[in-house]
Amino acid sequence: RVMFPLPVGDLLQTLQSDRENRFNKFLRVVQDSGVLTTLTGTRTFTLFAPMDNAFTEADVKKFEENRALARSLVLRHLVPSTIYSEGLLYFQVKDSMDKNKQVTIYKEGGKIRVNAANV
């Protein structure tokens, strides 16, 4: 089973094509992060993209004004491999693309959490 939304191209195109427009604020941060080429490349990644309700407008402005902070946020949510929900164990730790930052994935009773966020 693949997590949703279903991919329609590269990671950036998948976020942009979300019918519910749940990733607009994250996309604004991505634009300011300097990692667009990573998200539009052909390498395989899993992106745990925060939805709009995870950001206030002030948060987005803070990231727009600080490229290093925006870059860190995007890379912290990016794992350099494909992760399938069916293959998840109860507890896994994966390295993110942000140096020295890890992503902790929990699976219990069919529910998945990444760090403290429900997926």
TrEMBL record:
Gene3D superfamilies: FAS1 domain. Residues 10-119 form the FAS1 domain. PROSITE patterns: FAS1. Transmembrane segments: none annotated. InterPro entries: Adhesion/Biosynth-related, FAS1_dom_sf, FAS1_domain. Signal peptide: none annotated. GO terms for biological process: cell adhesion; extracellular matrix organization. One of its GO terms (molecular function) is cell adhesion molecule binding. Pfam families: Fasciclin (PF02469). GO terms for cellular component: extracellular matrix; extracellular space. PANTHER family: MUCIN-5AC-RELATED (PTHR10900:SF120), PERIOSTIN-RELATED (PTHR10900). This is FAS1 domain-containing protein. It comes from Clastoptera arizonana (Arizona spittle bug).
